[in-house]
Amino acid sequence: MLEIVDYSKKYGQKEVLKNINLKMEDSKVYGLIGNNGVGKTTLLQSISNFKIGYTGEIKFNNQTVLENQSVVEDIVYISEDMFGEAFYTEYKIKKLFKILSTLYKNWDQEFNTYLVEKFNINLKSKYKKLSKGEKNLVNLVIGLTTRGKITIFDEPTSGLDAKTRYAFYQVLMEDLELNPRIVIISTHIIDEAANYFEDVIFLADKSVKIFDSVENINKNAKSFMGSPEKLVILKDKNIIDVEKFGGMEKYYIYDNFTKEELEKIEESNITIENITLQNLIVHTN
After folding, report:
1. What's the CATH fold of domain 216-282?
2. pLDDT in tens for each of the 285 residues of the chain?
3. How many Å separate Cα 200 from the centre of its chain?
4. Are the CB atoms for 185 and 47 separated by under 8 Å?
């Protein structure tokens, strides 16, 4: 289990995240979502021990992650700039994979060979010369091959076409059946990735706004459109946004509703629609 306890992070005097508390179970896929600048990458890099200087504690299987090499070696962090300007970006992909195979104890060479063929990776190409999309594809292959007990994909499919994104998620889900682990995915292509999330962590206003299963979120996130007089029936619910259309209004709500409540609302000539995860972000401050 991955536990984050009273985590807060500042850059200078600017507080980015405050009092984050999360428990992530093994063998689940988590979606980390939120607007740009909300602190998603900061949190992921803290979990991966790339960022320190925070308050609180991050633990994996009851061991502190911070500067604990025995724990950190079980964590894999994949992002589009994961290598930066490191000297080994000058290497050909084949050599890069060989080096990484010595650094990650769960590296599966047979699986790597399969992925190279599936995604048509040119092992003779230099990593530094690849396009953004090609680099990200190589990074994804690394993330899949390493099979870290915690595997983090930060914007994994940026620069990839729809067919390749779909193939990546399919391979990931198939491999998780055989090699279960905690997977955390942060992406802006939310409605596509949501099909593979089990639980969602929604960051906003420095904190965790929602931490729930996709199933529950789909039940609780709804919009209601009608006249202001009719919508008064919803005044005690958790209204996250309001839009006005002439004499009509649309309430965006994240809350629990019984079957009887929804039937009563519909009888009041109020139109009810489900909100996608993408729209939930758009309409949450």
Report:
1. Alpha-Beta Plaits (3.30.70)
2. 999 999 999 999 999 999 999 999 999 999 999 988 899 999 999 999 999 899 999 999 999 999 888 898 999 999 988 887 777 788 999 999 999 999 998 999 999 999 999 999 999 999 999 999 999 999 999 999 999 999 999 998 888 999 999 999 999 999 999 999 999 999 988 888 999 999 999 999 999 999 999 999 999 999 999 999 999 999 999 999 999 998 899 999 999 999 999 999 999 999 999 999 989 988 886
3. 8
4. no
Q: At the fourth CATH level, which superfamily is domain 2-204?
A: P-loop containing nucleotide triphosphate hydrolases (3.40.50.300)
Name 87's Cβ contacts closer than 8 Å, sequence gap at least 6: none
Q: Where are the domains of the chain?
A: 2-204, 216-282
The helix/strand/coil state of 158 is coil
Q: In angstroms, how far is the first alpha carbon of the chain from the final one?
A: 30
